[in-house]
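User: I'm new to structure prediction. If I give you an amino acid sequence, what do you actually give back? Let's try with this one:
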Amino acid sequence: MLSLTSRSLRSRIVVSLQPSRGISTQSAQPSLEEPLLGTVPYHKSYLLLHGRQSPRTFPSRFASPLLVSLRQQALQWSALVNVAWRQPEPYNDVSLPVEEGETYSMVAFVQGGARLEIPHVSMANLDEVCSRLQDYMEHPEKRTQSQGGLHLYVCTHGARDCRCGDLGGKVAEAFKDEVLKRRKPEPVKYSSVTVSEIGHVGGHQYAANVLVFPYGDWLGRLRPDDVPGILDVLIQRSSSVDVDQLPSILPSHWRGRMGLHKDEQLERLRLVSHNDWVDPSRTSA
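Assistant: Good question. You get back a string of structure tokens that encode the predicted 3D arrangement of the chain. For your 285 residues, that looks like this:
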């Protein structure tokens, strides 16, 4: 176990998230100089527009007037914007109004584990949506913690880079199959786990890339064989623990986290002990 001497480090929870199965341990203690670590751009929130098409069908450069306008507005909140898709069955039925033009539903994940859902976004109501987002971003006291659940977003944007289409597609299918398999014997435990596909996140050389919410962790270099072990690790995380106090997960795959600058991502990895597993939900006050 690490010895933490500063007051700020002593107040943090030190957790070793060693996968119980399925993940190679050969690179369990990567060098802090590895390019994978610290490759997440700084952002305080992630705005996900859920549409009707899989990113596997997107052109290389996916853009629209709505996306351009929203991304311009999002700069003031230090937010990233992307388009996602969730297979309607058997995971979630993402229902959208039937109308002409570009429409989405939105989920905004915010640093600290909060989440805002907006069921309908289009050019017609974009000003209203942005006003609501601005109010939410500027008034943390109005936020509530995420309503639970584990939300995985796998980059499958193959037209942007073939590695995302190939490796990302395989990892996405592996997650969907694994969740479905586990949901049958343990419906309560896995009913709130969702698997979605997402457009280009940056860093296709790290494919397959997966974003993990509500924590805001980014994972890279995943393979289908990694999926069972990664799901074991993620499902053991306690929703009662302050997201901002959680150390890094899966050090050999961790790119960084929402709300952390590069130096903070490096420091967060140093908090991880590779020798012991401590379940945060069982850590005494």
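You can read the tokens as a compact description of the fold. Here is one thing that stands out. The mean pLDDT is 80.
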